[in-house]
Write a structure and sequence with these properties.
GNAT family N-acetyltransferase, acyltransferase, Aminopeptidase, 181 residues, alpha+beta, seven-stranded mixed β-sheet
């Protein structure tokens, strides 16, 4: 099967919403995402319209999708630009400007085909083009071993940074980083 990897378009907000809702129903969702299906489902259409528009052409973030040969969206990731000196969503002041990859998802029927790597390559290429970006990072749940292995295979390494989960402080999110080539 062939796939197109590309940025979302502003008018594709319904597909952005549908893919996110699908991701949040995945069995790994409780350890992969900080948002619940119910919370995402309750968001108004304007939220999804704004998200798609901002991630289609903005300078602060870009969403990339994997589209199969039938036009079905089967994967996605978002690169958010984080600027040095500002606080991230964990309240930590960022030491360098970088990209933060979030919302990583590949439909289970399409896993194992290199789509995460291709999505990350597209997100990284765009991220490296943004002035000042020095690294990419992501956070992965301590129990999400499949994702950890996939990210490591791509070149991400654990930085030593950890964040306890708000819902269960005994569980950790590991920071993984990828340096700019």
């Amino acid at each position: 099967m062939s796939y197109e990897i590309r940025p979302v378009r502003a008018e594709e907000w319904q597909q952005v919403k549908d893919l996110r809702l699908l991701a949040l129903q995945d069995p790994a969702a409780p350890i992969a995402y900080l948002e619940t299906y119910e919370a995402a489902l309750a968001r108004p259409d304007e939220f999804w319209q704004d998200r798609a528009a901002g991630n289609s052409h903005g300078l602060d973030g870009r969403q990339f999708v994997a589209v199969d040969e039938h036009g079905i969206w089967v994967g996605a990731t978002v690169s958010i630009i984080e600027h040095a000196g500002r606080e991230d969503f964990f309240g930590v002041v960022l030491p360098v400007t970088g990209a933060h990859f979030v919302g990583v998802y590949v439909d289970p029927e399409h896993r194992g085909r290199g789509l995460v790597q291709r999505l990350f390559e597209a997100a990284a290429e765009w991220s490296w083009s943004v002035e000042g970006v020095q690294r990419a990072r992501l956070f992965v749940h301590q129990d999400n071993h499949r994702a950890q292995a996939a990210y490591k295979k791509i070149g991400f390494e654990r930085s030593g940074g950890v964040v306890p989960l708000q819902a269960d402080p005994s569980k950790l999110e590991y920071e993984m980083v990828l340096g700019k080539p």
